[in-house]
Amino acid sequence: MKKIYLIIALTFGLVHFASAQADQQVTLGTTHNYNVTAVAGYTYTWTVDAAGSDTDVSTVTGNTISVDWNQAVGVYNITVYATDATNCISETETISVEVLGQSSVLFAAADDAQTCSDLDGNAFGGGASGGSSSFQVKFTGGLAPYDLVYRVLDATNTQVGTDVTVNGLNATDQFDVPNQFINDGTTNVVYKVVIVSATTKDGATVALPADDADKTRTITVLPKPRITGGIKF
Amino acid sequence: MKKSILSKLMITLVIGLFSISNLNAQTGTYDAIHTVLMGSTYEYNVALHGSNTYTWEIVNPADPTDVLEIIADKGINKQNIFWDPTKTWVKNGDQVILRVSEFRDHGDGDVCSSVSEITISFTNSLPSIEFVTVDNAICSTDATQVTVKFNGVAPWDITITDDQGDASKTITGLTTADPKVIPVAGEPGYYTYTFDIAEGDLLSPTGDVTHALTFTTFVDDNVRKNATEANGTMTGTLSITVYQLPQISTINHN
Q1: Chain A contact probe: residue of B144, B244, B249 with most A CBs at under 10 A
Q2: I need a labelling partner for A122 at 20 to 30 A (CA). Which of A110, B134, B183, B204 fits?
């Protein structure tokens, strides 16, 4: 019975330890600055426990360091203490930094959209999809939230309008593309929504999928229904 | 004739077992020469053998037949002796003999006796203590070692106080058995003793404060038994500056 209690206690402890939140999360490959309030006459000694050429701050004596987190994912500590003119040293200050893996993004579902054509002047043309088409995206790795840029191409792969930036997307999220398409023809017109780029919160580039199918969705615009013969009276 | 031979034999046996010692467990048995502080009282004793009687005498060392004073005639086996500085033979640097004669009456006319002696050497010098450590500075939370140099007769009591109103550093019952009590080479009778003091000991409050440490108590066994002196000679002041630790903010990041 005691063994069971011990196992439970150890398991709880390990889970609790693993879930402990670092003071800061960053994306692998990003550079971040750290500082303490400068005091005249003090020199500062910094250490970053991710030993390596890109995290060696042993020569820095100022109150600011810049760390290029390009080593490996994991949790690391940054520690600093001050030395004053009498050679007394301060207590140490430490923060933990969790380096997250590089990120990628793709459309999360096969959710191609279909919408009615707008009327002339982009007046709403009806239809169940309403005024916009929603597309689910999924980010993996990196530091959320993310910014995503998409563009719309017509059937001839000509860009419609300008690139659009959607800010603040979570790891699993969706964005809406306004249904501002007019189809005066008699057959469906297909537009493409293509993810152009994305970045993490700390500015790291999010990798795009190699397969176009994972970064492209379509909006099929139905032709306007036509009233023929005019109004009789 | 047989009685005379037996008596001599008994005297020889008793002399072999008989010596003056001291009852104070901290100091142990006196050496052959006991240096005493004039004006002090010391307790002396010899081993008690049955109903034997003991005569205590002060004798001129230059002439063992010259008895300067009989302290007790056929008394008990121990005496508290006050070395009165008003007596003509109690002089700084002089010596006398403390002689104890033990008598055993066998009831048949034979009285066996034996004698034990120690030399008493008088001094009017109080023990002295001084700082060896020079003035220094430390960071708050650090400790510093302080070394003092002193002489006298164990056990020693030392109290050091600083001028910032902090608690005293008190060392009591120091003896030469303490491994940190080290004889000073080339200075017989002198010792050094080293100890740590730290923040919260004598050196608070902290924060770029200079503490002036002085002795406020220095007692050795001679002082302890002296009728007029409360302390030995205490010399010097030790200044220790305690620097406040630098303060650092939390780490900011982007």
Answers
A1: B249
A2: A110
